[in-house]
Amino acid sequence: MGDNKGLWLGTKPAKCGGIGRFLLVGLCAIFAATTVLTGNVYLATQAPHQRIPINAQEILGKCAALRQPAGPPADFGDREVSDRFEPGTNTTLIRNARLWTGVNNGTEVIHGDLLLDKGLVKAVGKVPRSLYAFLENVTVIDAKGAWVTPGLVDLHSHVGLLPLPSMRATFDVNSPNGPILPWLRSIDGFNTHDEAFRLGIAGGVTSVQALPGSGNAIGGQAFMMKLRKTRERSPSSMIIDPPHTLSTSGAQVDPSLPPRWRHMKQACGENIKWYGTRMDSIWAFRQAYNEARKVKDAQDEFCSKAEQGAWGSIEGKDFPDDYKWEMLVDVLRGRVKISHHCYEAVDFDDIVRLTNEFQFPIAVFHHASEAYLVPDVLKRSWGGTPAIAIFATNHRYKRESYRGSEFAPRILADNDIRVVMKTDHPVINTRYLLNEAQQAHYYGLPPHLALASVTSTAATAVGMAHRIGFLRVGADADVVLWDSHPLHLGATPVQVWIDGIKQLPEDVQVGTGKDDVAWKEVPRVPDWSKERNATWNWDGLPPLKGRNELGLVVFTNVRTVWTKDNEGEIKEMFAITGEKEELGTVIVQSGKIVCAGSVLSCSENFNSFDPHEVLDLRGGSIVPGLMSYGSPLGIEEIAGEPSTGNGALYDPFTGNTPKILGDTAGVTRAVDALQFRTRNALLAYRSGVTVATSSLSKTTLFVGPNSIIPGLSTTFRTGAAHALEGGAIVKDITALHVNIGRPHPIGGRNGRGPGASVSTEIAALRRLLLEGESKDTETGLWFRRAAEGTIPFVIAVSSADIMATLLKLKVDIEEARGTTMRMVFAHASEAHLLAEEIAKARVGVILIPSRPFPDTWDDRRILPGPPLTNDTALVKLIEHGVTVAIGAQDAWQAGNTRWDLTWAALESNGRIDEQQAYALASTNLEKLLDVRVPRDAADFVAYAGGGALSMSSKVAAVLSSERGMVEFVS
Length: 970
Fold this sequence. Notes:
Elements: H1 21-38, H2 56-66, E1 91-100, H3 103-106, E2 109-117, E3 120-125, E4 138-142, E5 147-150, E6 152-157, H4 195-202, E7 205-210, E8 218-226, E9 262-267, H5 278-307, H6 326-332, E10 336-342, H7 345-358, E11 364-367, H8 375-378, E12 387-390, H9 408-414, E13 419-421, H10 433-442, H11 447-452, H12 456-461, E14 479-482, E15 493-498, E16 501-502, H13 529-537, E17 547-549, E18 552-564, E19 570-575, E20 584-589, E21 592-597, H14 603-608, E22 613-624, E23 626-629, H15 679-685, E24 689-694, E25 711-712, E26 714-717, E27 729-731, E28 736-739, H16 758-769, H17 778-788, E29 793-797, H18 800-817, E30 823-827, H19 835-840, E31 844-847, H20 873-879, E32 884-886, H21 897-907, H22 914-920, H23 923-929, E33 939-944, E34 954-960, E35 965-968
Parallel strand pairs: 1-4, 1-5, 6-7, 9-10, 10-11, 11-12, 12-13, 18-22, 23-24, 28-29, 29-30, 30-31, 31-32
Antiparallel strand pairs: 1-2, 2-3, 5-14, 7-8, 8-9, 14-15, 15-16, 17-35, 18-19, 18-20, 20-21, 22-33, 24-26, 25-28, 26-27, 33-34, 34-35
Helix pairs in contact: 1-2, 2-5, 5-6, 5-7, 16-18, 21-22
């Protein structure tokens, strides 16, 4: 009968009985299985002299499994208990809710109840009492008509791979070991001690895709994770639907089960150019996929022969496989959802051709700044048009993103391309994923698609719609109860459930001031069709210069006007509060308000002039222009492109400054490096920010400050054409700046090494403030003025411990010199821990960012605010009498200043009113930085459609008496 590899068969079929019956029983089973699996003729009757391997059934089962499509088993919807259910979890009945289910492309809204049990959604809408009456522990929550949605899904996150606070030892996001690394797995570097889990849940985010970085063409395998830590506390236990290839128990997987979706990260463009050019990258892709195709073809050929019964032709051969390329073979078999980092038209064209050459689909293009400009290219992708995962307003941070647009989501949707909003955490804190959807809606994305972009569309794009992203029977019990309609700015979770388990504390006040019915409705937003069309027609770079009017302009239907009093404080000039009252009129001559009030009170002025322009504000408002601080606005055009900026500063702590400067610290002036008409500055201007203070200091997410002593800031008008235009430079030299802190964990100072020690920085500061340098040098002159209090001294510092040291230093310097310093703490993440002491020392604070983020060790002790804490850092500082303002770290963020003010007021639980909110980015900044704009020279901004802090409004015009004109910007 031969060896143990098989049974020698002659020209006659073997019989299951008679001689050798015992030996043939097993083989008959194999033959039967072969007939069932392949549908072929009884194999023993085929070619003579065949050896049937004893593992033939295993081989044929493996071959049959290759044709199984990925996804949940057919009976998945029938499950009664979630595999993630934790015993002891109460059943939860949410009653009287507005349920946004995600069904029907996000258009379905059900008024009713929601039952969560055994980690699953058990009923939606009408919940029969019989479903829960027999259960012992049922928590009943009356939603009182509030909105309930599925848990939010962030498809682009590095949670766990770049855990907070950032540390060099936990930077596990990219590999230096080559461009093609499909065998790497993000789960192998996933850190469970990440502050982002708690913060993300506080924003309603329940699931994320933990992606490897974009430093490799194929960075490795990604995993869909839930942010809830399990009792096991392991990364593996946080995975949603772990692929069968990820062994967690060592148990053999039933080959008849359909494979679960796998996920992989690919990238193209700038980020991988350290391995070569774009041409090198595409060749690396093609070479890798060609190797995978060879393996796939070999497998198919092997299986074809096995299924035809041609065992002799594969005798002694193993099933063709290559552990190195097995992931890409699965890609070619359509079992992998690829997330592809890609920005520009050239990159999309490259990758779309690649998909057609090797016939595999892309699930989602990420970042995709130019995707909206090339919809027809995207539609040529093999296997269907990918979804597009993008930022709302975070653009121009590198050359590839220069043409990114806030109108991209709407343009993509108009082209029937699915839109996903994402954070790229920690680039944007995953906690604020919903804000990306809110901004997309503000700029024109329909509300059902905006909500779907962070729930159902995202889940569907990565093959997880059977579990997450929807409220429907059988889905995972990941649910968020909101304090307002989720698309309202500042919408906050009242409670979050993951797998039916409650996640948020119950003793935090949420939703104060949101009792009005308007908070329950979809927020009304402006019409942006004109701007959207211009963006499309100008290939993503529409002109941003407005239309100037030098003469008389009349604004009608004005609801409120705010102005500045003689002390520079913002005051309400008039307001129409009743819905039936006649709205007001404002008359402007050469950019200056000459009358504001009722039509009757201004009629004399109105009739004595022939207005050049009459603009209906439709219940809008006129408010003093806002101010921005902290970013390199006006210093650079593209953050990641050195050729568009000022260049590197000399840092005396890392090397000697050139002798030609004649100055030890190399103190330089930002005014000398100003650029006007940068797109970030003009977009900020068109968003109501008319003045900005910028220094030469620059800090990015992955690299610490570019210098400990970045020099002297300047203040300028964001809408000015050039430095010689009247009023363009508000203040040549505004403040002296230093950066004090522990070394950045990743980039160090200037990205080089660990940087100077904190004690060294403080020692140098002490010496310079005590006239350690001659006043004939720039360093000596400006540090002397800072010590005397004739110029603000702004210290970028985050740690409360270092702030305490600086407060003591302030006392020492003032006692030694008999002066009073004008010290300001910027960034100041932990300032709330010293609120009383900072107030007593009469030190001001500029919070950057305005909503806290535990980026580094110095930032770790944040006060996160609702729904995690009742207080926010802003509230605590204000209540202790500290003069507080807010700023922005990146230039693109300046355009969102008014939303930061709105959010600050909403998070305060009624303790920051509208006047105080305006002051955070206007008069308070002016006081801290000693920017005294005369009342008659102040800029005003006209908002059409609502107040300055309302999502219903947009900037219509800027009134500038200093420049003698009104500029219409929309």
